[in-house]
Structures are given as C-alpha cells and as structure tokens.
Write a structure and sequence with these properties.
single chain, alpha+beta, 5-stranded mixed sheet, 19 helices, 48% helix, flat
C-alpha cells in the first residue's frame, strides 16, 4: 500500500474542533518532520507519544477522555479500517498487530473507567471486582480490570466516599504495589470518620454507619501510623464503635478502648484476614483471643511528685499528689471521669479540653513509666515453653512451617517441622496449619541462627486433658503391635488402645474411647 502520512491519517479520521485542540495541546512537541525518515513505523512513535501524554500526572479527566478516544479511533483504524499493517511483513507484521491490539485493549479498559466515573458507578465496580478477587484469586482479564481500577483511582473525585468494603479491599490489594493516591484518599476517609465522631456518638447513628467506621478504622490500625498518639486515638475510636455494635456488653472491648487512650496501646489484636471477612463475630473472636496478652495489667499508677492515674470499672480518676476531695467532671456510658484535688478546688471554666490539658503532664509521665517498665525480650533456651504464631507453610517444602514467637518474655523466629507435630508420616502441613494460628510449643533447638520448635508434647497434653469416656472422633488405623492398636486422631496426636478392648470401629474410621487412654 502507499505510505500514510499524518495528513492522510487525519483525513481518514476527521477530528472535531475540540479534539483537534486537545491533540494540538498535548502532541505539540512531536516532530512530524521525521515521519518520512521513519517510514511506516512513524505511527508507532506517534502512538508512544500519545500513550505517554495519557499517563501524565497533570491531565484532567475531561482531557483524558478526549485524547483517549482519539487514541482508540486511531488503533481501530489500524486494525479494522485500513490495510496499514500490511506495510510490515512476517514476524514484524505479527509483532505490530499484537502491539496495536494490546494498546487498544488497555485504552478501552481506561474508557470503561471514565464511563463508570461519569455514571457514579465506580464504587460498585471496585467493590464487586475486588470481592471476586478475594474469593478465587483470579479475575477474567485481570490485567485489564486493574487498568480500569487504577484509572478510577486516578480520576474519581469520590474515591474517599467509596463503600467502606470497597475502599478497604482497595487498600489491601495495593499493599504490595503502593499507590499514593489510594493512601491519600483513604486518609481523607479516615479524617472524615474522625470529623463525624461526635455525630455518630451523640447525635444518632445507624448500625451500618458505625460498622463502616469500624472497617475504615480497622484498616487504619493495621496500616500503622508514625504518630503514636494519633494511632492510639484512632484505635480507641475503633473499639468504642465496636462496643456500640456489641450492645455495650463486652468488657474486653471497653478495656481496649480505654487502654488505647490512657496507655497508648496501639497493637491491632486482629489481622487483615479477620477484618476482610467483614464479620463482627469473626472480628470479636480474634480480639477476645489476643487481648489477654495485649492489655497491660495497669489499673493504677502512682507518680512521685506528679499524681496518680487509676482505672476502675466505673471510673477513671486523675488525682493530684495529695487529693482530699474528688469531683466527677463528666460521665459517658456509665463511666465517670473524676479529678482529685487537695485544698484548692479545681476550676472547670475552660471545659473538658482545658482540664485535660492541665493533666497532660501526668499522662506524659505515665507513658515514660511504661517505657521504663518494658521487658527486653531474649532468645529462649532449649526446653522453654512459648506461644508461637504460624507465618506461612513453605511452598516447596510443605513439611516446614515458619513461625514467630508471641511471648512477653522471649523473642525470635524459627521453624516447625512435621516430625515435631505428629509421629505419623505426613507429606504436608498445608490445610493443617494456617498463617495466624497461635499455639503453645517447646523450644527443641536454639542456636544463634536457628530456632526449632515442637508441639508434639503439647498436643498429647491436650488429649490427656480433654479425652473422656464416650468421646467420639475420626482416627486412622496406623499399626497393630504387641497387643496394642495405634491410631492417628484427627487432632494430630497418636493414641494406643488394647487390641480387643480399646475401641469399636464404625464407618469412616470413627472410634469411641471406651476407657481413659493416655496418648503415646
């Protein structure tokens, strides 16, 4: 075919005055005088310039939509409206065609994002796609879906107002590929939740509003924050809202809320997995399990020359060094804030903020005392019994699990081998141990660069404590020797029973304990 010049191209694809103006504004630096020297490949150089301009950070949505539409029309003309690609032959033709098709798919995915933004449907799209991704890990044309998602992130003016579920999923799914705009919009949403705090607490709310605030604040806590006091404040807000959702009945929630503000407690006591299930019962189960170790046993602290801080079930008291009288400043949900003074009565004219600032020194000293009392953890010796958390099961060696110590006294990371889980021969720990599982273990090796744990004895102890006459469980018959039968229970421990008297076998390997047998 004849060589196609830029003039010929735009005769084939006439532009409106608005489109011509946009193209001139963004492509004005392109040197069309080199077209003849490049031959038919000039158009790919031109397309590269257009793609680069479309990726420019300063472009507004309206300009992007116009320029992207021009880009799509050129690509469609190259594929379906002309024989331009016949300028190339062989492998070069195939490469050129594939490049045009890829450009077109990406541009159409971006155009879909613009359509969703214009229709106000970007929130539904993000939530729907990311929920499907969390279920299976796969999406049809995943790379193109992500182009649509990230184009929405780039241009949507309502990103910070997305449904909480969609926004939290978006934050989670961009953790490994950080997107500054996602975090900016997410922090805007956190700020909005903070602004609405008084309304949600005192002026009426719906359970849905409170629950959305819980998801947003939960994600903020898991992301962490360089400002400790800020994170403690957000953590307190999170637990206050959760306390409301639980009908103000859970003492463990109330303790977390108080300790966040009073003692700068900032640990999450839940995981992303717990939060992303979007289930209050699941979240509560995790919090209840982990709070015992997280909350410091610090009901009261005395500071020489400064005063006393006392946390009780029905009151929080800030007292001067010598306090003879106590006044209740205010009461929230049955919990009083009390101030103690000596001879001179405290003035509350400045209100709660002024009074709280007056006591700021006491709280600061309290934080200093906490820092002094922090236990410096050490490496555990062989034989030490510690709590461990499963980090992951090795992909290529599934008989190994990587674990970390979760203990107030000891610190370190190591491995748990299948041989230290059960005496039965197992080829994999997958579907048996899962990331986040916490269990008691014994240190069996403690070198400078190696920690190894065993949970075999602990599993057997569990069996001794919990097996009762008549208990039923699934077990696998392993062997018969010297008048005894050896079984592997579904909980992972081995049990030996007399050959004739120990068990009665039913379908599926179900056995009943006829007598109190100690595991091997």
């Amino acid at each position: 075919m004849d060589f196609v010049s830029p003039e010929h191209l735009f005769e084939e694809l006439p532009l409106t005055k608005e489109e011509a103006g946009i193209l001139d504004e963004y492509i004005c630096d392109y040197d069309f005088t080199v077209v003849g020297k490049q031959g038919p490949e000039w158009i790919f150089s031109f397309l590269g310039v257009v793609r680069a301009e479309l990726g420019g950070e300063e472009m507004i949505l309206e300009d992007y939509d116009l320029l992207n539409d021009i880009f799509i029309r050129i690509l469609e003309w190259m594929l379906e409206g002309s024989d331009y690609l016949k300028c190339f032959e062989g492998v070069k033709l195939n490469d050129a065609r594939m490049q045009v098709e890829r450009y077109l798919d990406e541009a159409i995915a971006s155009r879909e994002a613009v359509r969703l933004i214009d229709a106000g449907e970007e929130g539904e799209y993000i939530t729907s796609k990311l929920e499907k991704l969390m279920v299976s890990g796969y999406l049809y044309k995943k790379s193109l879906v992500w182009i649509t998602l990230l184009t929405i992130v780039r241009f949507s003016p309502r990103l910070h107002l997305l449904p909480a579920r969609g926004l939290v999923l978006l934050v989670y799914n961009t953790l490994n590929k950080p997107n500054p705009r996602v975090m900016e919009r997410f922090n805007e949403r956190v700020a909005l939740v903070r602004e609405q705090d008084d309304t949600l607490c005192f002026e009426g709310y719906t359970r849905d509003q409170i629950q959305e605030a819980v998801w947003i604040l939960g994600a903020r806590i898991l992301l962490g924050d360089p400002v400790q006091e800020e994170l403690a404040s957000l953590r307190s807000m999170f637990f206050r809202y959760l306390y409301v959702l639980r009908d103000k009945e859970d003492e463990v929630i109330r303790k977390n809320a108080f300790n966040s503000l009073l003692f700068n407690q900032k640990n999450a006591v839940f995981t992303w997995e717990d939060l992303l299930k979007f289930s209050i019962p699941v979240l509560m189960e995790s919090i209840a399990e982990k709070t015992v170790d997280a909350i410091r046993n610090c009901q009261g602290r005395l500071y020489e020359g400064h005063g006393q801080l006392l946390v009780e079930t029905k009151a929080i008291t800030l007292a001067a060094p010598v306090s003879l009288k106590f006044d209740t400043l205010m009461e929230i949900d049955g919990v009083a804030l009390k101030l103690g003074y000596s001879k001179k009565k405290l003035s509350f004219e400045e209100g709660l903020v002024g009074t709280t600032q007056a006591w700021r020194g006491i709280l600061a000293d309290f934080s200093d005392e906490l820092r002094k009392s922090v236990i410096h953890k050490k490496r555990p010796p062989v034989g030490a019994v510690v709590n461990i958390r499963v980090k992951l099961v090795h992909n290529f060696k599934p008989t190994l699990a990587f674990v970390a110590i979760v203990d107030p006294q000891y610190d370190g990371q190591g491995i748990l081998h299948v041989s230290q889980v059960t005496r039965a021969r197992l080829d994999s720990l997958k579907d048996i141990l899962h990331p986040g599982d916490i269990m008691t273990a014994t240190v069996v090796e403690s070198e400078d660069d190696r920690l190894q744990f065993s949970i075999w004895e602990e599993l057997n102890q569990v069996a001794v404590e919990h097996l009762r006459v008549g208990d039923q469980c699934n077990a696998l018959l392993l062997s018969e020797k010297n008048g005894f039968v050896t079984w592997l229970s579904e909980s992972g421990f081995l049990v030996s029973t007399p050959l004739a008297e120990g068990v009665s076998e039913e379908r599926g390997g179900t056995i009943f304990w006829k007598s109190r047998m100690s595991p091997r």
